[in-house]
Design goal:
Number of strands of chain B: 16
Oligomer: heterotrimer
Largest sheet of chain C: 7 strands, mixed
Structural class of chain C: alpha/beta
Order of helices and strands of chain B: HEHEHEHEHEEHEHEHEEHHEEHEEHEHEH
Largest interface: B-C, 44 and 41 residues
CATH class of the largest domain in chain B: Alpha Beta
Largest sheet of chain B: 8 strands, mixed
CATH architecture of chain C: 3-Layer(aba) Sandwich
Distance between the termini of chain B: 54 Å
Chains: A alpha/beta, B alpha/beta, C alpha/beta
CATH class of chain C: Alpha Beta
Number of domains of chain C: 1
Number of strands of chain C: 9
Helix content of chain C: 25-40%
Strand order of the largest sheet of chain C: 2-1-3-4-8-7-9
Strand content of chain C: 15-25%
Radius of gyration of chain C: 19 Å
CATH superfamily of chain C: Thiamin diphosphate (ThDP)-binding fold, Pyr/PP domains
Number of helices of chain B: 14
CATH superfamily of the largest domain in chain B: Thiamin diphosphate (ThDP)-binding fold, Pyr/PP domains
Shape of chain B: globular
CATH topology of chain C: Rossmann fold
Order of helices and strands of chain C: HEEHEHHEEEHEHEHHEH
Helix content of chain B: 25-40%
Shape of chain C: globular
CATH topology of the largest domain in chain B: Rossmann fold
Chain lengths: 313, 386, 278
């Protein structure tokens, strides 16, 4: 490990970049499918290649499609042997999604690693213990402050919102590239040239703006406040509600479709052979019964004011 | 010398076929929609209107078949515009189900049937008067319908206008029934100025909550809602109640159907139309329509020249049949002669009204019209016997 | 999604005095009607300017339940009635509801010519593969070998692919969906309603009482579930997302083109003619 290779983000001038790195420099880029992880990785690899380093880039993608885990290892230096980064060996961990960032933290160098993470939360379906929105999620509960204790340098950056404000949510990865650029020694025009190669012609302008925003955000965060206290947008909270079924009994023809197709199995026909909700606590308000009732006997209301117990926003 | 400017004093005279007069009458009546299907001998109506309607803010469409043409005409009328279709025997047969729909759902529309020889394809270019019964009873079930039987190009023009007026006032299909000879012969016709105003159907008015699509006043005709006017009604060929929705409640069905079957009775003064020629003292009255009536008119002249007292009764409105007028016309007659181009359809109705004793027919079904001499000979004979 | 966002109360589009409707328990036509009304709601189509024209049969009866200007016409002819209505009143939204017998057998001629003409109309053909109202006779879409009251030995006639027919006849928009996917069906109908020409939407519906029972297809719920389990994505078709029924019918938007709309062409020609006349 070559300490001089890590840009010192604490305020003084970054250490001079050494083309003859004794040890490879390791950047791990993670996120979920569709966010642009591979694009970040390609930009970095191309840059390093252009600077005469040996580069190894390995990734897992494709099997994830949209929404699944995607990661990419980029290693560069005078000589690079292994294509992947071992646990505890990443110089920079850059994450496009909050939980994915936390998942890969063990790969970061404990003493010196730099953690740059979008606060964007994409909740995977399997983190939904209960399909009722507003119910407890098995999604990481760690706050940015808690995470700060684990890393040498950490930045929780709301890149997605910044990109949104620029008019293109998809440029969030380039905001992060901007943040990353402050940690590496490649000259600014090089970054811009390579990024231009990798983004669609129509969106060059917005991506350049996103890149600039990422850079200036890091600069501000560095001078204004300790990294861990960088503003973190609270994760989106689903408005808690209680589903309520309005059943028009005289329209129900006992066809049983709602009972058999309810994913939560919370409906049944009562003694009069009219549908009733017998397990309201299981109902997620998914509306399938409303949609499939051929007789329009069910209407699902999602009452916002009644918050059932046990739901943590 | 007194000079009269004839151009100003007389309406412009034109040489028109019966079919052309029909198209001109439709435009004059405010018809805005025609849907049809080519069929001899009525196609000239469609051809004329294909040119005239687009220039008069209307729509012409040639449909895929006779049934579709009838359906499209009813559809257009449901949308609130005056609509017409024209056909001949085979097409008229195909249209019958939907004519029944128009009668039952009370949708105004005009159907021209230019009669040709039958049955089946028959004689497409030859005259016939064999759709007299089909025009009245062609569709299934009991229903009211108005059938007009003009006998000249000029009368076709007038009766086409009247057909639209009656359709609108009575909310009923109206059939314009004439034969191939009148349809395709050209005559000098002096058309009057187009009437300034036409009858329009009674439209729904007042608040939606109190409007009932088939509730009626004394005239027996319900006010019709037009899509877009906010009434959002239902129209169906099923038996329906005053609210327009299907019902099989015996009382509601009976109330609406009884009203439907008698609704034309309230408007007989408007509907009934006939011509009498020298019936006042007639020993023999000829009853005829269309081309046969024209021959009969000549026959009356021939008989009168011989001193025989022969008259003519010509229903212009064929259905409902002008019974009272017929009874009046035959008051002095001891014999009634019904010449027609079929095997006795008109005679059947005349016999129904007058009994069989004094009624006889002259029937021709070979594709030729009946000549005046043939009618005059028999009428003269009958007058002598009398 | 997590608020009461759909905000669609079907009762605002129903004639409440007519409810409950007359369809048998579990009939798929109810879901199709919901999808149609939902689509109309999302497109904010004025009920006063909406005309629904239907034919005869179970599907034909649906128009009576819609709070709009509705016309329940004769067997097979709703497209012809609608053609007259739409030509006379281009300001109206005209929707046709027809069944497989109504649309493909007795009304087949009107269907192909409506497709060819490309007049702006939206035609929903609710295909339950049977003449339900008359007691379950074989229809032009009944799958081969199926038992019906008029095919006691099993149906030996091949059936129609209505969407292929409509496409071949020149319809501007052709799509197909199953009733089980009500939101997808709603979206398909919406796309059809927004299409500037003739839109043909085939809805694969279930007749539980006379067809399902006769062919041992199980309960209503089982028939609805079968719609999904019998579908197989096929690699042989262009579309990636095309679930298949046992009859191998692709779903989704199958045809969309911008052939000239008939009514507009007619009005343009009329305007030119009127100008020339003066």
């Amino acid at each position: 490990m070559n300490e001089s290779s890590i840009a010192d983000l604490s305020g003084s001038e970054p250490v001079a970049f050494n083309a003859a790195l004794a040890e490879p420099f390791n950047v791990l880029i993670v996120g979920v499918g569709g966010q642009g992880v591979i694009m970040v990785s390609k930009v970095l690899a191309t840059l390093a290649q252009a600077h005469g380093f040996e580069v190894k880039q390995s990734e897992v993608h494709g099997m994830a499609k949209r929404g699944g885990t995607v990661f990419s290892h980029v290693r560069y230096g005078a000589r690079v042997w292994s294509p992947t980064i071992a646990k505890g060996e990443a110089d920079v961990l850059i994450a496009l999604e909050w939980a994915e960032g936390l998942r890969w933290l063990p790969y970061l160098k404990r003493e010196t690693g730099v953690f740059i993470c979008d606060t964007k939360r994409i909740v995977p379906p399997f983190a939904c213990l209960n399909r009722r929105p507003g119910a407890t999620l098995r999604y990481s509960g760690e706050t940015a402050e808690q995470v700060a204790a684990y890393v040498a340098e950490g930045y929780a950056i709301d890149a997605t919102r910044m990109a949104e404000e620029l008019g293109n949510e998809r440029a969030a990865n380039v905001v992060l590239l901007g943040a990353l650029s402050t940690a590496l020694e490649f000259p600014l025009p090089e970054w811009e040239r390579v990024i231009t190669q990798f983004v669609p012609k129509k969106s060059v302008a917005v991506n350049m703006a996103a890149f600039g925003l990422g850079r200036s955000w890091i600069a501000e965060a560095r001078t204004a406040a300790p990294a861990a206290e960088a503003p973190v947008r609270p994760a989106p909270v689903h408005t808690p509600y209680a589903p309520r079924l309005e059943i028009t009994a005289e329209w129900c023809k006992s066809c049983d479709i709602c009972v058999k197709l309810c994913p939560e199995r919370c409906l049944r026909l009562n003694a009069e052979r009219v549908v009733e909700l017998f397990a309201p606590e299981k109902c997620t308000g998914c509306r399938l019964c409303e949609w499939l009732c051929p007789d329009f006997a069910i209407r699902v209301h999602l009452d916002a004011e009644a918050v059932p117990e046990g739901i943590t926003p | 010398m007194n000079v009269v400017d004839t151009r100003r004093a007389k309406p412009a005279a034109k040489l028109l076929s019966g079919n052309a007069a029909c198209a001109a009458g439709a435009i004059a009546a405010g018809c805005k929609f025609f849907a049809g299907y080519p069929i001899t001998p009525s196609s000239e109506i469609a051809e004329r209107l294909a040119t005239l309607l687009p220039r008069n803010n209307g729509v012409f469409v040639q449909m895929e078949d006779e049934i579709a043409a009838m359906a499209a005409v009813i559809g257009a009328s449901m949308g609130g515009v005056k609509a017409l279709t024209a056909t001949s025997g085979p097409g008229f047969s195909l249209k019958q189900e939907n004519i029944g729909y128009a009668a039952g759902a009370e949708i105004p529309c005009v159907i021209v049937n230019v009669m040709r020889g039958g049955p089946s394809t028959g004689m497409p270019t030859r005259p016939s008067q064999a759709d007299i019964m089909q025009s009245r009873y062609g569709s299934h079930g009991d229903y009211p319908i108005i059938v007009l039987a003009p006998a000249s190009a000029r009368e076709i023009y007038d009766e086409t206008i009247r057909a639209f007026d009656l359709a609108e006032i009575c909310r009923s299909p109206v059939v314009l029934l004439y034969d191939q000879v009148i349809a395709q012969s050209s005559e000098t016709v002096a058309l009057g100025a187009a009437p300034a105003a036409h009858a329009e159907r009674k439209r729904a008015s007042g608040p939606r909550e109190t409007y009932k699509p088939f509730a009626v006043g004394a005239d027996g005709i319900p006010a019709m809602a037009r899509p877009g006017d906010g009434y959002r009604t239902h129209t169906t060929g099923l038996t329906h109640g005053e609210d327009g929705f299907p019902t099989q409640n015996p009382e509601a069905v009976d109330r609406n159907l009884s009203r439907l079957f008698t609704k034309l009775d309230h408007h007989r003064e408007l509907i009934d139309s006939w011509e009498t020629v020298r019936c006042d003292d007639a020993d023999v009255v000829i009853v005829a329509i269309g081309i046969s009536a024209r021959a009969a008119k000549r026959a009356v002249e021939l008989c009168r020249a011989e001193g025989k007292r022969v008259g003519l009764f010509r229903p212009i409105t064929l259905w409902p049949f002008p019974e009272a007028a017929l009874r009046e016309a035959v008051k002095t007659a001891r014999a009634v002669l019904v010449p027609e181009l079929n095997l006795g359809q008109l005679r059947h109705e005349v016999e129904r009204l007058l009994g069989r004793d004094r009624v006889e027919g002259i029937n021709l079904i070979n594709g030729e019209p009946i000549g005046p001499a043939q009618i005059a000979a028999r009428a003269s004979q009958l007058a002598s016997e009398a | 999604m997590f608020t009461d966002a759909p905000n669609f109360d079907i009762r605002n589009y129903l004639r409440m005095e007519m409810m409950p409707h007359f369809l048998c328990p579990g009939c798929g036509h109810g879901m199709a009607l919901r999808a149609l009304l939902w689509a109309l709601h999302e497109l904010d189509i004025d009920k006063d300017k909406l005309a629904v024209v239907s034919g005869i049969g179970c599907a034909g009866r649906l128009s009576a339940y819609i709070d709009a200007n509705t016309f329940h016409t004769t067997h097979g002819r709703p497209l012809a009635y609608a053609t007259g209505l739409a030509l006379a009143r281009p300001d109206l939204h005209v929707v046709v509801i027809s069944g497989d017998g109504d649309c493909l057998a007795i009304g087949g001629n009107h269907l192909i010519h409506a497709c060819r003409r490309n007049l702006k109309l939206t035609c929903l053909m609710l295909n339950n593969e049977i003449y339900g109202m008359t007691g379950g006779q074989v229809s032009p879409t009944t799958s081969e070998t199926r038992l019906t009251t008029t095919t006691p030995l099993g149906n030996t006639e091949p059936n129609f692919d209505a969407c292929a027919l409509a496409t071949a006849a020149g319809a501007g928009f052709v799509g197909r969906e199953v009733t089980r996917h009500v939101p997808k069906l709603k979206e398909l109908i919406k796309a059809g309603l927004q299409h500037p020409g003739f839109a043909f939407v085939e809805v694969l519906s279930d007749c539980t009482e006379v067809y399902g029972r006769k062919n041992d297809m199980g309960s209503s719920a089982e028939m609805v579930m079968r719609q999904k389990s019998e579908m197989r994505p096929s690699v042989y078709r262009d579309s990636v997302d095309t679930p298949f029924r046992s009859t191998d019918l692709p779903t989704g938007i199958l045809t969309r083109n911008d052939r000239p709309e008939y009514g507009a062409s007619l009005r343009r020609a009329a305007a030119l003619a009127s100008k020339g006349a003066h």
